[in-house]
Amino acid sequence: METAWRASRAGAQNVRVAGMGREAELRARLYRLAMRIAFPGPVPDVDQAIRLACELLTLERDTPATIDVAALHWGTAFRDAEPLIRDMLGQQQVLVPEPGTGQPELLGFLLRAFADGCLAWSEIWHRLLDLLPRWQDQGQAQRELMRLALELEQDTSPAGTAETIAAMRAAAASAIAQLPLRFKVETAFRITGRGTVIAGVIEQGTLRIADELELVQLASSGRAETQLTRCISIEVIAAPGRDPWLGAPVGVLVSDLAPEDVWPGGWLRHRRPGN
Question: Do 48 and 160 share a domain, yes or no?
Fold first, then answer.
């Protein structure tokens, strides 16, 4: 199996997103920066992050954190710049796993980067292989992605390779939806007569009306606190009436919670058995 994967890597090494424009190229660089933060290895080069922020500003993709990163001094240590860089990535809609994040969240990050067309298969496959569950524990979409990856090494024509890569990206998108729900909380507010709306983004998994949920937040002591709630309705903030999709700003109307009980940085997940 390992030999086949190495062959797959060699066959896909030069596969990149065809016709990538400047916007797409900058988004790919954002994902590469996020991957350097999320996984062990050499720390990111802050000077490169500063250059990236400056280029984003020239395209009028200015956010508060992007402006702050662009204003950093050359040579700033990563430990000092990390909070700002993480904020910039989040504001640019690239969701970076938090420190101590579990395997499903890291897997979701890689699948999302590949499904969005931002990273090539050769950039993620070795980390993906380490994070995927055993074959007997994989979902249908994960197995389809693995089957296509082995098929990729058999493709010899550019057209065949491009077709297989496109199918792999579609399988990756399906695999994200099959992962456990993780909804990152950004803010909360009250709608008079209806209840509390938690606004944030779906990082992975699927959220449906009537789902039983847990709100997980870090207390001042550093311990995770969990509160139970229920999804009453869902609305995509930027596109009312559409079903929610990964990474889109979403408002979730919930029961039994007040806005002051919800803090930025927490997350919603499906209720676990016994809770």
Answer: yes
